Request: fold
Amino acid sequence: MTFRSVLALCLITASLASCNGTTPGCSKCGATSINLKGSVSGLTGFRLALQNGSTTFSIPLNGPDANGSQTFGTSAPNTPYNISVNTQPTSPSQTCVVANGMGTTGTSDVTNIAVTCTTNPPRFLYVINRGSNDISGYTIDPASGNLTAIAGSPFAAGGNPVAIAVDPTGAYAYVVNQLSANISAFTINRTTGALTAAGAAPVATGSSPTSVAIDPTSSYVYVTGGGTSGTVSVYVITAGTGVLTAVGGSLTAVGRLPSAATVDPLGELLYVANLSDGTFSALSISAGNGTLSAEPNSPFPCGASPKALALDPTGNNLYVANSTANTLTGINGLPPSAGAPPGTISGSPFATGITPFSIAVDPVANTLYVADQGANTLSGFKIGGAAGTLTPIPGSPFAAGMQPSAVAVDPTSLYAYAANSSSNSVSGYALDPKSGALTPLSGSPFATGAIPVAMAISD
Reply:
């Protein structure tokens, strides 16, 4: 091939935007791939997925570390592009928008795409009343944090309800009924917050179910139970209805008397606190069907009578409330592996009030709160970044009602709530996003049913 013919071929391929660097003599025809670049701001959630037209970029954006400059994907030269959100982030639930996402590439990188994320404000608070076998529902005033009963509240649950979880989309709520040995499924009216039963009847669980957790894709529900021979059951969420279907053969052994469970923000691992063993289990989640398998050397030791657990905003540090030791054990080195089992965070265990019973983490303010059931207080801590160390918040512990059994935090870092099991009430607090200090709301406390023991917030 002569030089003139090579030059002509290069001009033709460049005009068609199809020179890919493989045509003989075309090494200088121009760029073969254009980077689509820009910035991300405000992201605290996980699993944000973007797409170009109908093609989803393969790498999701996860957590605060993804903020700043990013290369979102690539495109061919002289080609239209249309960047939009494919999947909004969860843990916490956020809404992200794309600016400067449309145009036509040239022969150099696109650099001005901007993705901005905001955390969805809380809409509804649901409180499980063990003594009255029902669920108190409230709307949350975004300006004051005060609670107003939802029309139709309280909503009937099963016998001795003990736990609740709301799916990341805010569409469904699931309540574990210990005496009935089943789980009630509800759809959430996104306008009013009212609960309506999903399915003809609650779905059977194992004996003595104790806690419930949902994966960040809103695909699977996990229920712990089984008493001294602890297990986890897996259920599939039917899209559009919220109805649960048990996954056959999914029953997985954990430690004795499992008391709490949480899923990591990437949906890869389930952690379970085992009350009678003084351990926590780490279980990997199958991406195909949600089934579980124990990580090597699981379960791992923590403290005496672990009652609750929670992950920090990175998903790499786990905190376990040891109810008879009056401490929090901080676990790092997650996820665990056979060669490097998890370790403990510097300074662990951290002192709490008497009988720590529940944990909530604020992903924006990087704070952690513990319901101290025996002290009638909430202990507050600042989380020290990736290291996960805990420092008491000035003014902590904060007064609660009688025997607080649960604590929940608004993911926008404005409000916190404590369910007081012996006061039949919820204490509400304004949360200082800088210091993490709690100040009682003007309308607090708010009346509940009998013996409130668990809570969940829906956006």
Q: What stands out?
A: The chain has a mean pLDDT of 90. The first helix runs from residue 3 to 15.
